[in-house]
## 1
Amino acid sequence: MCLGIPGQIIEIVDDANQLARVDVSGVKRNVSVALVHAEGIAPGDWVLIHVGFAMSKIDEREAKLTLDLLHEMGDAYTDELTMLHQSQIE
């Protein structure tokens, strides 16, 4: 199963290549923000992440509600976090 997971932008690490470091439930990884860059993103913003790409910008309330629902999914969510932890985008 593939999930979109909320992550909070920690910093923009490479503006030219549109990469940001995000925190997803304690897992910190670089993701492409090319798809949401035009919306204006900054540290502290929340984005919905899927396979290493920020797919949309979301507000903090939506992020928290989604994270709560994902935690209820158990193994599917844990598996997705494991795959994110093993990924590397530079």
## 2
Amino acid sequence: MKIPLPRKLQLMFAVTALAALGPAAQAGASQGQQTFFEAPALLLNPSTRPATLATLQRLGVTSLRVELSWHAVAPRANSTRRPAFDATDPAAYNWSLYDPLIEAAHQRGWQILLTVTSPVPRWAEASPRPRSLAYRPSAREFGRFMTAVGRHYGSEVSLFSIWNEPNHHEFLEPQFNRNGSPASPAVYRALYQAGYAGLQASGIGSPKVLIGETAPEGETAPRVPVRGPRHNMAPLAFLRTMLCLSPHYHRVGRCARLAASGWGLHPYRSGASPYFVPSNRETVTIGSLSRMTRALDAAARAGALTPHLPLYITEFGVMSRPNPYQGVPVSQQAEYQAMAEQIAWRNARVASFSQYLLKDDPMRRRSVGFQTGLEYYSGRAKPALAAFPVPMTVTRHGSRYALWGLVRPAGAATTATVEVRRRGSSRFMPLAEVHTDARGYWSLGSTVAGGAWRVRWTSPAGVRYTGPPIRAYRGR
């Protein structure tokens, strides 16, 4: 007579034969992907900084992205007349908004990505305008400013980036000339070259600098004549024009090759699955990262960039409700965020992933902001808060399931418990003990069908982490 095994043992045996699939799935994955976290409103505010840093430390954060506004530190930034001062001298600037945060991160051993960007001082604009603090900034003045930045922060910053979303009108104007020809790529190229030279002049011999930091979408040919600033340029069109390349990636003119440590990008795809590939081939989202790697490789073959330039995802998040236009349900936000991180991890060219916002922006009548946070604006937790330290994906291939995850706070190889909840049941049961690699990643194959899965992990200090229920998605 066959004696039935207890349910727990049935589940454990069901995954044993498939567990060996894990290491093979990691063969082409990124070998050093770090995660940048950005929470500017909370981290730059002295009253909320300590609690925010403590929360991020519990979540396993070890790297921050900080956007440094030129306007925020410059002397007499609202004057149209340039003050008389040595723009390369750090003592001429007011760094008090940023110094405490960078010092606190430095004390924790965290790495800093410093993105130096607009708004700019009015005296540094080509033609100051009432509603713009980003109109054709002076490359000469920016180069001097970057020398001061390098002298002040050079020893505390592991990675610099020059400008935030230069293909977006809110950060650099104009994007197009009135006749529809591109304007921002040439302005940005001059800023980048001057900024890079400024860092070298500060004493950093070979500065590690990201180029690009492009927004995911935009136009290639706006209606002419162009009226007003509200135009964004498609990232691949921006890349080609900035590098003096034709639409077929052939050299146009005599532009020199630009030195860079990587291309920064913000591959948002709000409201759609991370696997979604936009029909516009000039767009780069999380589901179409290969478009950017192919473009970078073509640019390198043309001699415009260093070969095999890595991708740095420096800003990303999944928009959730209550955003009425692009927000997904908060349970799906946690799932989509993990799916996006897995997409990045699978791509060996991706050097970093990111999370933009701990707390949602407030909802306003005329500006809804970003609801990509792990918490609502009220501070109440979303499922994404529990998911961030232990993200997990479940992919269904017929009757088999491929599970992937990360124990972010571990910092070393560890063991976590994967649990499954059968359809129709309200209880989770142990599925398998998974062993991570040295970076905290794990993968598992299973034939156990379920309605939801989750991860449990207890740190060596006794802190318990339980991820939210995660559903299975069909494999792509």
